[in-house]
Structures are given as structure tokens and as C-alpha cells.
Design goal:
By secondary structure, the chain is an all-alpha fold. It has four helices and no strands.
Length: about 140
């Protein structure tokens, strides 16, 4: 189950990297119109990267403490993810309500594909559940 969690975490990370790239390429880090605060985005990214490294080390060493550490890191990662989702949702609604608005003045996160946001969130939930089940010793 630890390998399944690793795969789910990697899929989640790919979606996150893709959205981070979109956000940065559209000026999200320097754009005052962005609804996603830079510390939240970078905190989510940094904690997720650290958690993934911890999980990889757990998979290699089978250290139970590292499994629980990775799960503990997933809590603030998920919280920051929910904060960003809550702040992205009105931007997405504005996009669908007024698609004729010039993209230059739109927040960077307006360019996130809904399928990627949804897939990232679903993969994150799967990751969280698999990491918890592994930490609990299930599936061994």
C-alpha cells in the first residue's frame, strides 16, 4: 500500500506542479489581482515536497515514524489546499459568468483547467487515505 500511496502522491504532485507553472507563468507571484497569497501557495508546495521526500524515505526504510510524520505533514498541506480551493472557486465562477473579460486583467489562477484542479484534489484525497492506512499498518 505504501507504493500505491507513493504513486498517488506523485500524481498529485504532477497536477500541483502544472498549476504552479500556470500560476507563475501568468504572473501569480507578482500579480496583485491573484486571490492566492504567495505564502499559501509556496507553503503548500514546500510542505508537499518535504512530505513526499519523507514518504519516499519511509518507502525505502519502512520506518513507521516516517509514515506518521508524512501523514502529519499532509494535514497542513490539505488545509492550505482547501484555502486555495476556496479562494479559486469565485475566480472560476467569474470566468464562467463573464468569459469575455480580458485575460490580461484576470488573476493568474483563472487559467487553471478545472479537470486539473479536480484531479489534483481527488488524487490528494486518495494519497491522504492511503498514507493513513499505511501508517495504521493496514495492507501489509
Amino acid at each position: 500500500m505504501d507504493i500505491a500511496a507513493l504513486i498517488a502522491w506523485l500524481v498529485t504532485a504532477l497536477g500541483g506542479f502544472y498549476m504552479l507553472g500556470i500560476w507563475l507563468s501568468h504572473g501569480g507571484a507578482r500579480d496583485r489581482s491573484s486571490h492566492l497569497p504567495v505564502p499559501v501557495v509556496l507553503g503548500h508546495f514546500a510542505l508537499a515536497a518535504i512530505g513526499l521526500v519523507v514518504w519516499i524515505i519511509h518507502v525505502i526504510t519502512n520506518n513507521e515514524t516516517l509514515a506518521w510524520t508524512a501523514f502529519g505533514l499532509l494535514m497542513p498541506i490539505a488545509l492550505l489546499g482547501f484555502v486555495m480551493l476556496a479562494r479559486w472557486t469565485p475566480v472560476h465562477r467569474d470566468r464562467t459568468a463573464a468569459p469575455a473579460v480580458a485575460d490580461r486583467s484576470a488573476p493568474a489562477e483563472r487559467h487553471f483547467p478545472v479537470a486539473v484542479v479536480t484531479g489534483h484534489g481527488l488524487a490528494a484525497v486518495v494519497t491522504l487515505v492511503l498514507v493513513l492506512l499505511t501508517a495504521l499498518g493496514m495492507g501489509e
